[in-house]
Design a protein that fits this description.
heterodimer, A: mainly beta, 20-stranded mixed sheet, two-stranded antiparallel ribbon, 1 helix
Chain lengths: 286, 279
């Protein structure tokens, strides 16, 4: 059975700075989603064009969604893009004597089938703040194109996170996590570390900052081209040389100077931290 | 309840990210069985790619492994019998080597993971023994080949997964093979060209450094490097070609850099790499 909800949320817009910006009064809507198979694995896929996403793990077995629009002040540049005439042959229409009717609804789509949940809002000119309580064991996939941050707390399932403008902040997680930002930071604190699959955090031009709980065993790999690496670990980072092994009689090749690695607590699953120009921070937690 | 039940649970939990706790009955059984505890630890070490585990398992696990292979063969036999109505298909199947029959029987992935782990586990265990027996050595050599093939199958299967983390696992598995399977290399390069995760793409480039020969792939990798828009990926592709490519391909890459077809950061990176290579 497919459980689908399309929530049209009424909003009251008030034009504050006509021609250069606009704001919207905050409106909030909540929905409690009951899973088809309580107690079984849950995967949640979230795609939001503009806004912020906060996910909090809890002991329950429903998904509690709170959606709120917040003030969105568009830059003049953005408005110019919206106003631009697509077809230059179209003549400009007069709006004299007419009043502007602002958009008063926001579409949030939630689908669920056999514990696979999809939450999406692809409206480009509204800012949506989502706060979602999910079962701790949930596996999460989030893509956020514009606006604020992705904030995660207390989720033990796998995480796949992409934020194109905002930060990614994840705490009290165990991964595996694969996260990527363009220019903003990724901040992650691990209370445990998954042995199942590798984890990797990539920020093209932002910093990557992680905190590892004392007992975590992992192979921490670091790679930055123009940034620096700061470590609070007891274990030193060493360069892992690349050695190409070939069958008997053929040449071997050794390339000195590969990635740098620290085997924390004897080593374990791989955790890679990568940035082009950002710094990498590795902290030791409690 | 026996040792195999607990081992099956352990392997399934590792292979499927299954967080199910041991039942009380299993916990009680395990508590008083230290050799089994050691076996589970050994399995976990193998799963985490530790090449030389500190602890070796009991002889019983070795026996279990051969029992598992035997079960796999009987299952294959039963399966072939059922298909025998399709004579031609059946004939084809009977002529398949063991590795193919096991591969076919072992689908889907979870079972392939189980089998691969068991095979790797058994091989590791046996290689840890100090036997000089020639016959055993040949058996192990054969077993090693089959493990390589199964690891390739497993890697290819993981590379098709939906989550980036699982695809990273697939890339990690591919590094455990010698990348001699052209289909695996082709799949890696295809994924390198289209995967949305930078982490996965960088991991693939790292793996491709293990290719024994670049001849068949380097032109394709050069094309990818030139067209690439992701700075990190473009740099690593260039590093790969500069470290492992032929003289001709290095020359082509340098020409591209000189013609300013590459991003300024990448051009600078290539210059630095070339300086290092010539020192």
């Amino acid at each position: 059975m497919k459980n689908t909800l399309s929530a049209i949320l009424p909003l009251a817009f008030v034009a504050m700075f006509a021609g250069s910006s606009q704001t919207a009064n905050a409106t909030e809507k909540s929905y409690s989603l009951v899973l088809t198979k309580p107690g079984e694995p849950v995967s949640i896929d979230i795609e939001v064009y503009r806004g912020s996403i906060t996910l909090v793990g809890y002991q329950g077995d429903t998904i509690e969604i709170s959606a709120k629009t917040s003030n969105f002040i568009a830059k003049e540049k953005d408005l110019e893009k919206v106003k631009a005439t697509k077809n230059p042959n179209n003549s400009k229409r007069s709006s004299e004597g007419l009043k502007s009717v602002k958009r008063q609804s926001m579409r949030l789509q939630i689908e669920e089938k056999n514990n696979k949940v999809e939450i999406s809002s692809e409206v480009s000119n509204q800012h949506l703040d989502l706060v979602i309580k999910v079962p701790q064991r949930s596996s999460i996939d989030v893509e956020l194109y514009k606006g604020g941050d992705i904030d995660i707390d207390g989720i033990s399932g796998g995480l796949e996170l992409e934020a194109y403008q905002g930060m990614i902040i994840a705490k009290n997680i165990s991964g595996p996590i694969v996260a990527e930002t363009a220019r903003t930071d990724i901040v992650v604190s691990f209370t445990d570390f998954s042995k199942v699959s590798p984890s990797s955090l990539t920020s093209h031009k932002g910093n990557v900052d992680i905190t590892l709980a004392k007992a975590i065993a992992a192979n921490v790999n670091v790679q930055t081209y123009q940034g620096e690496v700061f470590s609070g670990l007891d274990k030193d980072f060493v360069v892992v040389d690349e050695i190409k092994k070939h069958k008997k009689g053929q040449k071997q090749k050794v390339v000195l100077g590969g990635i740098m690695q620290a085997k924390v607590n004897g080593g374990g699953q791989a955790l890679s931290l990568i940035s082009y120009s950002g710094n990498l921070y590795i902290r030791k937690g409690k | 309840m026996n040792n195999q039940d607990i081992i099956d649970w352990k392997i399934a939990s590792l292979a499927n990210n299954n967080a199910n706790e041991l039942t009380k009955e299993m916990q009680t059984y395990l508590k008083g069985n230290s050799p089994l505890q050691a076996e589970l630890h050994f399995i976990e070490q193998f799963w985490e790619n530790d090449i030389k585990p500190e602890i070796t398992p009991s002889d019983k696990l070795d026996v279990n492994f051969y029992q598992m292979l035997s079960r796999a063969q009987s299952a294959q036999y039963d399966s072939s019998a059922q298909i025998s109505v399709h004579a031609s298909a059946s004939e084809e199947k009977q002529s398949l080597p063991l590795i193919e029959t096991v591969k076919r029987w072992l689908m889907p992935t979870a079972i392939a993971q189980f089998a691969t782990l068991s095979l790797v586990f058994a091989l590791g265990f046996n290689l840890n023994q100090t036997s000089n027996n020639q016959q055993n050595s040949e058996q192990y050599s054969g077993l090693q080949k089959e493990i390589s093939s199964l690891t390739t199958v497993l890697a290819m299967s993981m590379l098709e997964k939906d989550t980036a983390s699982e695809r990273l696992s697939g890339v990690a598995y591919s590094r455990q093979t010698d990348l001699s399977d052209p289909l695996l290399v082709k799949q890696l390069i295809t994924l390198l060209a289209r995967d949305k995760s930078t982490s996965v793409r960088l991991a693939i480039i790292n793996s491709l450094g293990q290719l024994s020969s670049f001849d068949s792939s380097e032109q394709q990798i050069l094309t990818l490097a030139i067209k690439e828009e992701n700075l990190l990926v473009q740099m690593e592709l260039c590093r790969l070609l500069l470290n492992y490519g032929s003289i001709d391909i290095k020359k082509s890459l340098t020409e591209q850099a000189n013609l300013q077809f590459l991003k300024p950061e990448v051009r600078e990176f290539i210059q630095t790499q070339l300086t290092v290579l010539y020192i």
